[in-house]
Specification:
Elements: E1 9-13, H1 18-29, E2 33-37, H2 48-54, E3 63-66, H3 81-109, E4 113-118, H4 131-151, E5 156-163, E6 166-167, H5 169-173, E7 191-192, E8 215-218
Parallel strand pairs: 1-2, 1-3, 3-4, 4-5, 5-8, 6-7
């Protein structure tokens, strides 16, 4: 195991399960100190007061994985506005506040850093029944692009990843994402969030330089034993 993050401090939102938990485990195993923010700890990423409260704890962060998210699935004609707002609040408002807090900390200490925003293939590919989730993830992708432009003069690299189906609690909690919720002809196979290739940590390491794509679409099978079939990454 390489030690890519010795003496680094990492902020991870949504770190209690799924991709966030896998990322926290990987970064920790490679030397990073983890600062986790998660709803399971009573922390709402969409609450500006939270970020004011934890600002001093984030003062020394080197990397950030903006991963907290929820899903709502319904056709537009049936979509409840409260569900729309709740999804956009967590996935987009929360992402903005998280990125903002991370960038403020990195600009403050003057060392720069790296930020990865977990978006979704749903933010790139339209699919019926995913309006709220897809719109929030499309917004997150463009948020990352704008943040990258603003962060570059300060040595802050910002990327987004757009995973396909990943075996996380979002899939288990949302009817649309369950295997029997897919339309005919859609792949029913789900990847696992513990893969190291196509993982949120992939664009974080110093070896990426400044050449990582702004958004990486990850398509492929990630297995629990960390062996992988070839992933396809494409610049978007």
């Amino acid at each position: 195991m390489t030690n890519r993050f010795p003496d680094k401090t990492a902020l991870i939102t949504g770190h209690a399960s799924g991709i966030g938990a896998a990322t926290a485990a990987l970064l920790s195993s490679e030397g990073a100190r983890i600062i986790g923010v998660d709803l399971w700890q009573g922390q709402d990423v969409a609450d500006p007061a939270l970020w004011q409260e934890v600002a001093s704890d984030l003062a020394d962060i080197d990397v950030a994985v903006i991963n907290a998210g929820i899903a709502t699935a319904a056709p537009l004609v049936d979509l409840d506005f409260a569900d729309w707002r709740r999804t956009l609040s967590v996935n987009l408002d929360g992402a903005m506040l998280s990125v903002q807090a991370a960038m403020r900390a990195m600009i403050g200490h003057g060392r720069g850093g790296a930020i990865v925003v977990t978006a979704s293939i749903a933010g790139l590919k339209a699919e019926a029944g995913t309006a709220a989730y897809a719109a929030s993830k499309a917004g997150a992708i463009h948020l990352a692009r704008v943040a990258a432009k603003e962060g570059a003069p300060h040595g802050i690299r910002v990327n987004a990843i757009a995973p396909g189906g990943v075996d996380t609690p979002i899939w288990d909690a949302t009817d649309f994402f369950r295997p029997d919720g897919f339309r005919s002809g859609q792949p029913r196979r789900r990847d696992h969030g513990d893969g190291t290739d196509g993982h949120p940590a992939w664009p974080l390491g110093d070896r990426r330089g400044n050449r990582a794509p702004d958004c990486v679409s990850v398509v492929g099978r990630c297995r629990n034993d960390h062996r992988h079939r070839a992933d396809r990454r494409r610049r978007l």
